[in-house]
Amino acid sequence: MRASREPRIVIIGAGVSGIASAITLQRNGFHDFVILEKGSDVGGVWHWNHYPGLTCDVPSQLYQFGFAPKADWSRIFAPGPEIQRYLADVFEEYGLRPHLRVNAEVTAATFTGSGWRVETGDGTVHEADFVIAATGVLHHPAMPELPGLDEFTGEILHTARWDDSVATDGRRIAVIGTGSTGVQVVSALQPKAEQITHFVRSPQWVIWAPMRLPQPPLLGAVLDRLPQVNKALYQVGMTGARMFTDVVTRPSWRRRTVQEYARLSLRAQVRDPELREQLTPDYQPLCKRQVLSGSYYRALRARNAELVTDGIEAVTPTGIRTADGRHHEVDMIVFATGFKAHNYMRPMNLVGREGISIDDAWAKGPRAYRMTAIPGFPNLFTVLGPNSPTGSIPLHHAAEVTARYITAWIHRWRTGEFDTVEVTEAATIRFEQEVAEALTPTVWNTGCNSWYFTEGGSIDLLPFDRATMEQMLAVPDDNDFHLRDAIAN
Ligand code: N01
């Protein structure tokens, strides 16, 4: 056993998972880390997304770090800019600014035999003992290649790269896509648009929820004064979230109840049989990432709104032509078409042991042992990586739990137990088999297409409950890893 030493750590990404990682390292006495962020500020998805109507559809009291609860959220479901501010405030509060490099996109990371050589777009090189890839899931916008799009003379926007200088009031707007984003942006733009046309390829179930409900100021004041009550409320929320996990992971009366509520949300708000027919999905509620809204159906019923479910044939210089031969004249096209959710850290040129690239390692789709360790890539961990619980467990919590797990490995490195730690192929295959088996009874597997599916056809989610997730990341299991000295590489 060698003397204690201090690890150099690179964290890639300053979103929820990067912030959770940095603070967890710091709280455990690790200070030699740098956070490389591609964007111009912290916040990840909440930095990049600022489209009109952006709201978090997870209750604010749950959509926060357990170690940094905010008492005074303005609404039960916080608006995007408030979440972005919260993340920036936490970042400041924990003194992370000196560790941050913005506009520092990692273009390459190469395993050296004992650690990593990480390169950013401007040619800066960081030598590290460990890399934590906290690069996010919903980061790379998906932009469909529609015939004629290049010839369109109006504005083209993707919701995930919104341009705040583009006017929307009094204009004829096409919105393509009806996930959580499309529903929010249509609801927000409709009141002041001249005309809004929502192009929907597959309708979604939209559960009614009071998305604009204010959080009572008195509650904020009480939670602020009594941190114990704040903690208790967080725990109550986590317990409630556990019931939701159960709803999606296996059939039960609870699942059926939520699904019935989804159907009722449509029936009660859309009386016109033709519109209701158009809005009725041909798959079970909850199969795709559930959409929540208190205003979408009302927006669609407005005089200046139209739902179009005929397929898009082509974009023309002045609008969109659908398969029924109609031409829809519009001034701007908004793509709410989601993300390439399975890219993770790619297109970064990530090269592991013996020259294996991440593209080769993931040729059949992204994979990682317990969401965080990849065979062939020693001393590298992902946070909210493959099979993360994006559809079931509060994300901040999942990021915190994963960050603690990684920190435990780094702690052992510090004490000199090993130079490199790499998950075994056998353990990764075993984990994949467990996941595949547990995915069978999930609602995500009941016959819809969604961004949860990888190109290879597997579902990229964690089909376990919170307790199982916490247990699997509680203590590193040596049997599942190769622990080596650098000399042996
Ligand atoms: O993206 P999506 P999103 N022609 O992938 C359609 C999170 N989020 O940005 O279903 C026509 O869900 C596609 O149609 P189809 C949340 O996890 C959270 O809305 O493939 N349409 C679909 O309707 C969410 O799930 C919040 O037939 C095309 C849509 O585009 C995730 O982000 C808020 C098309 C894409 O839906 C992604 O949501 C917002 C084409 N060629 C988002 N290509 C919170 O509140 C795609 N579509 C926390």
Question: Which CATH-level-2 architecture of the largest domain?
Answer: 3-Layer(bba) Sandwich
Q: What's the rounded overall pLDDT mean?
A: 95
Helical content, roughly?
25-40%
Largest sheet: 5 strands, parallel
> pLDDT below 50 for ≥5 consecutive residues: which ranges?
none
Which geometry do the CA atoms define?
globular
Structural class of the secondary structure composition?
A: alpha/beta
- Enumerate the strands of the largest sheet in spatial order, edge to edge or round the barrel: 3-2-1-7-19
CATH class annotation of the largest domain: Alpha Beta
Strand content: 15-25%
CATH topology of the largest domain: FAD/NAD(P)-binding domain
Provide the CATH superfamily of the largest domain: FAD/NAD(P)-binding domain
Bound compounds, each kind once, are: 3-acetylpyridine adenine dinucleotide
**Helix count, per DSSP?**
13
* DSSP strand tally: 21
| Head-to-tail CA distance between termini | 18 Å
- Write down the domain tally: 2
Radius of gyration: 23 Å
